[in-house]
Amino acid sequence: MLTVTPIPAFNDNYIWCIADTGTGKALIVDPGQAEPVKQHLSRHNLSLDIILVTHHHPDHVGGVNTLAQESDGCRIVGPSGSPFSGITNPVHPGDDLVWNSLTFQVLGVPGHTLDHIAFYTDSPVAGHPALFCGDTLFVCGCGRLFEGSPAQMRQSLESIRQLPDDTRVYCAHEYTLANLRFARSWLPGDDGLRKMEAHCQSLRDADKPTVPSVLGDEKRLNPFLRWDDPQVIDAAKAYGTDNGLPSESPDQVFAAIRHGKDHF
């Protein structure tokens, strides 16, 4: 049996742990800090077997070396050509990665960084297909473009948008309420966003995470996946007119939304 647990780190990071309760082995995704992971593994009597890295930012790889040094034979799987030098098993987009009963497809999702990848499996994890996407897609948001272009990021999100609606999206940050405030400022009449904000606020009030999200909900609500939605196009055109940005093509609509969030 596989379980998936978020391990809080820093102020708003989530490090993901997939545990095989039958073998006591654990898979860890993006350990920016070692200590929270060590505590979690000890508390649940798990041994670290493999680490997945989505991109090179320190809040995703800062704990990798310490964890690897203390875990005999631990594989570190991450993007080939990454600036992070601690990867032992580099992978490329299109590769498959097998761990226990799971087969992950490696997706290339540049935009936030140029080396960014995501790990998708249609083998049930806690009952559903799963996407571990780092900082590419958030609940009602997406990652800042530190290295890539709007066109690259939109194409990356397009590849994610093609995945099944019941996919659970395991992102790496608790940015949900801030993302929803922005989304509602752009689409104030969107009742789905209003209900989503109320639901997520109730989760946070109870000190519960708002992730994972459901990809079908993201397709319906997240403005960064709705560049071809007439409501979002109209909002992007209005924003572009006010800020001197073109907003006719899908890439330009997406760029306007990203610019709006960056300056919100």
Question: Could you give the topology of this structure?
Answer:
Layout: E1 2-9, E2 13-20, E3 25-29, H1 35-43, E4 47-52, H2 58-61, H3 64-69, E5 75-79, E6 89-91, E7 96-99, E8 102-108, E9 117-125, E10 128-134, E11 137-138, E12 141-142, H4 150-161, E13 168-171, H5 176-186, H6 191-205, E14 213-214, H7 215-221, H8 230-243, H9 250-262
Helix pairs in contact: 5-6, 8-9
Features:
264 residues; alpha/beta; six-stranded mixed beta sheet; 9 helices; 34% helix
What does this structure look like?
Helices cover 34% and strands 27% of the residues. It contains nine helices and 14 strands. It has helices at residues 35-43, 58-61, 64-69, 150-161, 176-186, 191-205, 215-221, 230-243, 250-262, and strands spanning 2-9, 13-20, 25-29, 47-52, 75-79, 89-91, 96-99, 102-108, 117-125, 128-134, 137-138, 141-142, 168-171, 213-214. Helix 1 links the parallel strand 3 and strand 4 (47-52).
In short:
The protein is α/β, with parallel strands linked by helices and 264 residues long. The protein has helices at 35-43, 58-61, 64-69, 150-161, 176-186, 191-205, 215-221, 230-243, 250-262; strands spanning 2-9, 13-20, 25-29, 47-52, 75-79, 89-91, 96-99, 102-108, 117-125, 128-134, 137-138, 141-142, 168-171, 213-214.
